[in-house]
């Protein structure tokens, strides 16, 4: 499957923060979730991907091309969705559509009308009067109506009720079905990714911890609980991180088989959630 965007050893330094050697690619036909704690570098990475920000070094290829001369054309192929940026607050949705439609040569009125109906969006309401959920849905509808092939969303489900969240997740899952589009979205709601992501990119402190198929990540990581006496220096090496209480311990391992063989009868093991993996890896336990 074609890569929508590929980052190769991308670096970007601010005073007091740096993105270090970021490399990963986002494939068409898949949903890639982007997670990491506050300040890890998600928005900065997204801005670099969209060429809204210039990297210090490294390469960013959009649709297999890093030729800046075609940038305007390339940008047409990208839909950037984030919650607080809807323009034209004073216009109705209908008028905004007329303005926006002229920006995009590939704008498709029929597709827009389809999503307006499907997402129950009001044509006559002013953009500034839309609820947060409606604004997010409208922003996604716009991306889909200019036939964007790379849809990048910055926290699309944050602050939305469970029904709107589900609607948006269902929509994203549907969008990738034709295998012509890639969806990349950052979120703090890891359960959303457990539901729909194919790949997970995890960033911490400006570095990519992993970029991996979700099933592989989930299979590799197991939470283990047991009595404290079981922990010795050798056993500790089996864990990525261990948290101890007065009576017992809880640890995250990526060597579940070995743990099971060595102490299977004495511990309780369960599949780690993405949240467990994130919290343990960041080490704030
Ligand atoms: N223009 C800038 N100048 C200096 N520092 C910046 C600038 N933009 C971002 N930063 C810093 O870079 C770091 C990463 O910020 P970024 O917004 O990419 O994180 P994030 O992972 O998106 O965080 P959050 O989950 O809180 O949205 C932060 O420490 C931030 O303060």
UniProtKB/TrEMBL annotation:
The keyword Transport applies. It holds the Pfam family ABC_tran. It comes from the Bacteria. Keywords: ATP-binding, Nucleotide-binding, Transport. InterPro entries: AAA+_ATPase, ABC_transporter-like_ATP-bd, ABC_Transporter_VariousFunc, P-loop_NTPase. The keyword Transferase does not apply. One of its GO terms (molecular function) is ATP binding. Residues 5-230 form the ABC transporter domain. PANTHER family: ABC TRANSPORTER ATP-BINDING COMPONENT, ABC TRANSPORTER ATP-BINDING PROTEIN ALBC-RELATED. This is ABC transporter ATP-binding protein. It comes from Alkalihalophilus lindianensis.
